[in-house]
Amino acid sequence: MPFLTDDGGPASDDDSSSAGPRSSPVSPPAATDLVAARSQLLDRNAGGKRLDAPALRQVLVDLHDFWLTTKGAEIGIRPDSGFAIVAVGGLGRQELLPYSDLDLILLHDDVDHQRLSDVADGLWYPLWDAHIKLDHSVRTIPQALQVASQDMSAALGLLEARHVAGDAALTDLLITGVRRQWRTDIRGRFPELVDHVRDRWKRSGDIAHRAEPDLKNGRGGLRDVQMLDALAIAQLTDGMGHLRPDSPGAGLHVAYNRLLDIRTELHRIAGRPREQLRAQDADEIGAALRIGDRFDLARTISDSARTISYSVDVGLRTASNALPRRGLSKLRRSPIRRPIDEGVVEHAGEVVLARNAIPSKDPGLILRVAAASARTGLPISASTLSRLADYAPELREPWPQEALSDLLVLLSTGPHMVAPIEALDRTGLWGRLLPEWGAVRDLPPRDAIHTWTVDRHLVETAAIAGTMTTRVSRPDLLVLGALLHDLGKGRGADHSVVGAELATQIGNRVGLWPQDVHLLSEMVRHHLLLPVTATRRDLDDPQTAQDVVDKLGGSPVLLELLAALAEADSLATGPGVWGDWKASLIGDLVRRCMRLMDGEDLAAPSPLTQHEVSLAEAGGVSVELIPTDGAHTFAVTMVAPDSPGLLSKMAGVLALNSLRCHAANARDGAGSAVNTFVVVPSFGGPPDAGLLRQQLLQAIDGGLDVLNRLDAKERESPLPTAGPTVGSESDRPTVAVPALFAIAPPRILWLDTYDDDGSVILELRAGDRLGLLARVAAVIERAGATIAWARVSTLGGTVVDTFNVTMTDDSPAARAAMEAAILDVVPPPTPVSETDGGAEDAGKAGVPIG
User: Fold this and answer.
1) Is the pLDDT at 538 greater than 70, yes or no?
2) Which backbone phi and psi does 345 adopt, to 5 degrees?
3) Whose CA is closest to 378, among 715, 682, 725?
4) Using CB atoms within 10 A of its CB, is residue 513 exposed (0-12), middle (13-18) or buried (19+)?
5) How far is CA 835 from CA 377, 382, 840, in A?
6) Sign of the CA dihedral running 733, 739, 743, 746
7) What are the tens digits of pLDDT across the range 755-788?
8) Residue 741 above 90 pLDDT?
9) pTM of the model
10) N or C end of the chain, less CB within 10 A?
11) SS3 of 105, please?
């Protein structure tokens, strides 16, 4: 065919494409020759070297540029002619796909109508006659600018315009004018752009978790990167510049090109314009791109789409904060920096590092930032993530207790944990904390019932488990087990066995006690035991429950953890996996197993140390504050003559000084109350022990009402309001202070003791709150009950507070009244909307790409 050279490119005098006319006339090929040349390039049976996807796109661009240039010269579209051929869409970006439409504009300088009609007919009719799909328009520069100002799609298309033939100065005027207009009007058009993008996502779904994704229009697709380019033209973002090349997905540019190559092969294999990747084409596309089978292809698509999605979130947020101010808004003060945690502050609606934070000297800063983001609902700044990726060192093994605590806080925030973990993962920080994560990152499930990739399924399971933490006595192990239960997948062996070994490895690394490491490993090893047994064996057979008890070593704690994990795992798998039938079977099995197990030992107070005994015998009021092994954790010992309400006053004094209580033991000895607390300052350092003693004396004497002061402190620092990621300045959050979301509903348990003094044990499981111990203790004491001793544990975002109380009226009505009063002071569960997790995508996935 004379229209192609030997290597498949367009023939010309200098064997190169040109955007302008040749110095010597070249007889333009007919449009039918253009079609024939395209067909020859795509003919699978044709001889010659098969072009890879990038080369094919470039040859198609050169082919069409050559035809348009020579045809334009024939009909009079030359320099200084007042005409220009302008390409938009794929040809404009020089990313023309095999069966993409031609998007062309015939630009003119208000020429004579008859002359314009002759030129337009000479250009369009040959393409129409050859049945080439054409999206065309004829405009002057003012007309094009007017259309761009009124139509968002047209504006985005014109931002990608490229001169092909004719009067280059005319095209330059158009491109310059469109970009200047876009930058000038971006403040008013930004909400329209956001609505335009969200409507597209709603129609096309999320690419990363779709069985048959729309590569062009879905969330995380090609259109999103083109939108980011438009924001970069408006000087609101840096386009593709914020992700590191060594991060998962290798940065935005690589992710975009991967999806573009896959879309190119989809066109070539399907033999038609198609944006949705169908199951029947997946294996052939994977082989053509040397990726592998359809599962390997699905993993590549998920990785690329999630990288793009994260970049879009950052880009829209950055653009929203960078919108130019006008009018009185110019006089508004810059956003202030509000402390959230040690080294972590809120600024302009994002979690950022404090000015005095030194990532290179603070290995736990990564988890502290992530926990702060999950607690407040505010996103992590891209610059903060980049700085942490560059300078934060590895955590030593075993992790400090503070790092483990921050991980548990992160995992206990339910659906609020998803965004921070995704941000850490896309920037390579999550894999630094959990190197084992790489084997399951973007790993597609092999079962059509699964909605998510394996890594996202683990996060979703942990998020759902975070709403169940008050059901179990070890909420920390529940969320850790949920996060790790399928970590053994993708390694070519039984994932439960491999996962148990990995759980042991990770448990030792993060600093769990040996018995907790064993319990975590057993959770992962047996996470399928209850659902498999309940649905496949006869529950009326006594041996069924006995076998389960034997496998679990008779541990009721492990049994209750596995019951909660089974529900969370099923709910995170896909729609219809968890239902009344399955719930009733597992519940029945658990009840039968519990009857065969011995009950747990009741909680008991820890004995006084010799030093604490000496403090009690000395009498008076004393306060000691000493550092612990953690850089930001302190032990406080308070001793005072025993009196009603003393525990509430001691805990209240700590809360007034922004000291969060992670653990506490309240006991008595020698007529004094000896209470020890493990505390962490919300930010900054702790107050002097002398100040704490002075405030405690005031509280005991009645000069300081700690509960009223706590209420006033909360009113002065309301909970954060995490506004939308995009929108007007009025939508941006103006307040961000330390706060924990209570995801799981609070629960109160009553347990009879073995003592003969009539005391009972009250166990509270609830979300944490600054000053919660002081408020709960005050409620118990106001009800006329005496607290003999108390043990307090904060496990992630859930407190497990145990009180040994003696009630003057231990009737059901009195207990119900006390429960109601306690529930009034604990954090209510935060409503979880579909946008917090993955509910909006439930039911949309099957076997990945097939």
Assistant:
1) yes
2) -135, 165
3) 725
4) exposed
5) 12, 21, 7
6) negative
7) 667 789 999 999 888 899 999 999 999 998 999 9
8) no
9) 0.86
10) N
11) strand
